[in-house]
Predict the 3D structure of the following.
Amino acid sequence: MSRTILGESPAVKDLLKLIGRVAGSKTNLLVIGESGTGKELVARMIHESGPLKDKPFIPVNCGAIPENLIESEMFGHRRGSFTGAVSEKMGLFEAANGGTLFLDEVGELPLNMQVKLLRAIQERVFRKVGGNDDIKVDLRIIAATNRDLEAAVAKGTFREDLYYRLNVILIKTPPLRERTGDVELLAKSFLHRISTRSKRSFEGFTPEALAALIAHSWPGNIRELENVIERAVTLEAGNLIMKESLPLTVFSSPTVPVSSRKNEISSISLTGTAGGSNGDSAEIRLPAPDFSKGVLNLDAILNEIEKLYLTKALAHSGGVKRKAADLLGITFRSIRYRLTKLGIDTANGSEDTE
């Protein structure tokens, strides 16, 4: 039985609805989100919930392959095509034929490989390294990244045509700090799974331990939570997880921002002021880079700043996205991407009218 996304938060319910809507097609998808938010799990759920579920699911971490080997890994090679090619090799595109190819960390691909990937995705045709024959494939592409590809396109480090070829449908995996109420559910699920695997028996968590888990900001997201529970299971001698079995980072890192302080990222004193043209201002409190106090969550800090400026610009422009983009010095396409990425609701706003 395949793993599924656990959670009762609105963010997870919306994600599951979207997965259900796209699973039945073979449309290319781009999954964005912070590290540890379950992007590969989303891809697997889409694959296993649709018509390709009995076909191959081939994952590849694009950032983990040496640059000189990427083309061979993706498309395969002919014997003798380069030093060390002692036999013919099947590439990942061919291995995924009929199924799904999951390109994790696609933003790490070098530009020269992006060109070749674009042709393969667009035409479903490729050539092996050292080969002269076109090989046709029929497969679904799901790409994922924790990078801002819109910004990478603007900088020229990611091809715009490849970005749009991948981003037919955009899916955002929510960070754990935005999944209100899900930490306890996930912690108990991980405890059951890990203790069963370790042949241990636990009744649960002490109130102090559970409170610490809920208050933590989880910069490493679900992956961090799972590792913390595994550590606790290993160290705990009794049948309850005590707070003493949790790592110090759970107690020393910044806590999750709450809605009543949504413009304040941390209580550590390094402040700046974001002023609007209408004279109002909102204080942004930034954590000083003191790593002796624990792990900082840079993505969360930058996301909160970006949210503040976007919402201020939209408010000043009366919800007109083009005007808001002009106020921020970015393109209309960029503001649409950023609003989607950050989950900012603009249902009542206007896009094109002045």
About this structure: The domain at 10-174 is CATH 3.40.50.300 (Rossmann fold). The radius of gyration is 23 Å. The mean pLDDT is 84.
